[in-house]
């Protein structure tokens, strides 16, 4: 029970506040976010519980939970919160902190997908959808997942085989090199 | 009328028909689209938490390129692309430090002169219902259409319609002679990229959306997002396998419905690219000929 021994019980709340501008201590635990969340059946920590865990300064449970990675950022919680807390933005900041903590992640696959996605942009300036999905399925050693969609997608002209590369690729590489992971470290 | 155009990555492959139909309907309304020269990906959702500065610098470069090309208005058909361009534009107008930082990263300064538009607000505000109506040649003959918006109206920077009961698409469908349905799942989530990484979650969400549309007697669903279209259209076979439900509901882009009412060619609108084919439905309703 880290919150009982903590020197500063607002430590995690302050960290979230500084990177997202959102104050979890305003949460009144009405539960509206969890009630409206389309992904809540699959979540191991409900959205209102995420806020509660921030309030009681228990980052460990949050940094390794699955919830933050399967949140689809649909913003339903954010627009319904009576305290006007942007909960989706808080989910996003916990993702950043989970990566920073370098511990095991609740959903390694989601992160893998997103990393391959960014890599595609770095190499081409644009995302090559077919390459993205194939690289992801290969990385997960499941090369035939969704392969059944291949023939119909091909027949409908939905698979771009070559993909595009932009002209100023050097500029994109520069932007990648110059960008820092956090705006407010 | 000349307008900037930011198609985004999906419109080059899985959502090619969104691109084709947008180009076709605007040509019919005498709007010329000029692509942002050498545009790059907006960074979509992954850049957000993997690299915050990158998530803003990528759209920032597109704003710079648009401005350099003299484009003062840019249409982004993809809601994520649209949200990112608009959000970054708004943030740099508010925060000078951020503007300077992004200018350093990208190596060029954006002066702030690009107005971002999604297809829906562009049609309403810039085209207007009169101009749209004069381009219409055939009626959609009471086609029952469930308009599906997903998270479009709630994305950061987006302020074009009611957050939970949007009506922009419904109004257009009504103007085309279709019957817009009042239904429960207009703004429910389609699962977005979970369709790849946690497919079973997306199947559950899409099944619920299709079930709701079918329950209201929808002939088809109208969308204005490449990811919504892809999840709702390509996953109907997987849903049949998992849940035993058979929908066969065609998922059309709003731009394709407009093009049909403008009597544009079926394949020019990319209608032959949809997985669930709308052909028989459209013939049955007397919207296209056999």
Q: Which keywords apply here?
A:
A: mainly alpha, Fumarate Reductase Iron-sulfur Protein, Chain B, domain 2, 12 helices, globular, B: 290 residues, Glutathione S-transferase Yfyf (Class Pi), Chain A, domain 2, Rossmann fold, four-stranded parallel beta sheet, 13 helices, 9% strand
Strand content of chain A: under 5%
- CATH topology tier name of the largest domain in chain A: Fumarate Reductase Iron-sulfur Protein, Chain B, domain 2
Return the average pLDDT of chain B rounded to an integer.
Answer: 97
Helical region count of chain A? 12
Rough shape of chain B?
globular
Please give the CATH class of the largest domain in chain A.
Answer: Mainly Alpha
CATH class of the largest domain in chain B: Alpha Beta
Spans of at least 5 consecutive residues with low confidence of chain B:
none
Which two chains touch over the largest interface? A-B, 63 and 59 residues
- How large is the share of residues in beta strands of chain B? 5-15%
User: Rough shape of chain A?
Assistant: globular
Q: Uncertain regions of chain A: pLDDT < 50 for 5+ in a row? A: none
Number of DSSP strand runs of chain A: 0
The secondary-structure element order of chain B is EHEHHEHHEHEHEHHEHHEHH
Task: Describe what you observe in this structure.
Chain A has 2 domains: 2-101, Fumarate Reductase Iron-sulfur Protein, Chain B, domain 2; 108-178, no CATH class. Chain A is globular, with a radius of gyration of 19 Å. Chain A contains 12 helices and no strands. Chain A has 185 residues and is mainly α. In chain A, helix 9 (108-124) crosses helix 10 and helix 9 (108-124) crosses helix 12 (169-178). With 290 residues, chain B is an alpha/beta fold. Chain B folds into 2 domains: 2-117, Glutathione S-transferase Yfyf (Class Pi), Chain A, domain 2; 138-284, Rossmann fold. Chain B is 48% helix and 9% strand. Chain B contains 13 helices and 8 strands. In chain B, the strands form 2 sheets. A 4-stranded parallel β-sheet of chain B has the order 2-1-3-4, with helices on both faces. In chain B, strand 1, helix 1 and strand 2 form a beta-alpha-beta unit. Chain B is globular and about 55 Å long. The model of chain B has no long low-confidence stretch (mean pLDDT 97).
């Amino acid at each position: 029970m880290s919150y009982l021994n903590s020197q500063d019980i607002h430590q995690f709340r302050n960290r979230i506040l500084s990177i997202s501008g959102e104050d979890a201590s305003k949460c009144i635990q009405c539960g509206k976010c969890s009630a409206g969340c389309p992904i809540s059946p699959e979540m191991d920590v409900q959205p209102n519980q995420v806020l509660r865990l921030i309030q009681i300064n228990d980052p460990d449970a949050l940094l390794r939970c699955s919830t933050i990675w399967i949140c689809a950022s649909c913003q339903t919680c954010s627009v319904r919160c009576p305290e006007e807390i942007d909960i989706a933005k808080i989910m996003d900041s916990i993702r950043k902190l989970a990566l920073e903590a370098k511990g095991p992640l609740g959903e390694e696959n989601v992160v893998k997908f997103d990393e391959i996605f960014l890599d595609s942009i770095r190499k081409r300036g644009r995302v090559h959808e077919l390459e993205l999905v194939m690289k992801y399925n290969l990385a997960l050693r499941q090369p035939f997942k969704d392969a059944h969609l291949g023939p119909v997608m091909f027949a409908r002209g939905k698979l771009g085989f070559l993909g595009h590369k932009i002209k100023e690729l050097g500029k994109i590489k520069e932007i990648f090199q110059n960008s820092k992971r956090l705006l407010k470290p | 009328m000349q307008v900037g155009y930011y198609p985004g990555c999906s419109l080059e492959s899985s959502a090619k028909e969104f691109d084709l139909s947008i180009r076709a309907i605007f040509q019919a309304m005498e709007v010329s689209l000029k692509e942002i020269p050498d545009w790059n990906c907006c960074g979509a959702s992954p850049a957000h938490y993997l690299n915050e500065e990158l998530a803003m610098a990528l759209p920032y470069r597109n704003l710079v390129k648009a401005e350099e090309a003299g484009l003062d208005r840019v249409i982004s058909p993809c809601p994520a692309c649209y949200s990112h361009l608009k959000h970054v534009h708004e943030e740099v107008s508010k925060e000078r430090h951020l503007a300077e930082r992004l200018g350093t990263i990208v190596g060029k300064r954006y002066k702030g002169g690009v107005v971002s538009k999604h297809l829906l607000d562009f049609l309403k505000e810039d085209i207007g219902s009169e101009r749209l109506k004069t381009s219409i040649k055939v009626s959609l003959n009471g086609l029952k259409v469930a308009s599906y918006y997903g998270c479009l109206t709630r994305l950061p920077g987006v302020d074009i319609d009611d957050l939970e009961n949007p009506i922009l698409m419904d109004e257009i469908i009504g103007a085309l002679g279709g019957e817009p349905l009042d239904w429960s799942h207009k703004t429910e989530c389609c699962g977005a990229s979970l369709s790849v990484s946690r497919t079973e979650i997306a199947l559950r969400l899409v099944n619920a959306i299709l079930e709701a549309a079918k329950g209201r007697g929808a002939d088809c669903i109208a969308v204005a997002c490449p990811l919504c279209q892809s999840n709702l259209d390509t996953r109907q076979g997987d849903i049949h396998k998992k849940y035993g439900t058979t929908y066969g509901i065609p998922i059309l882009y709003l731009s394709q419905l407009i093009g049909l009412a403008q009597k544009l060619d079926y394949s020019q609108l990319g209608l032959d690219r949809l997985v669930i084919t709308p052909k028989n439905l459209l013939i049955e309703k007397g919207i296209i000929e056999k």
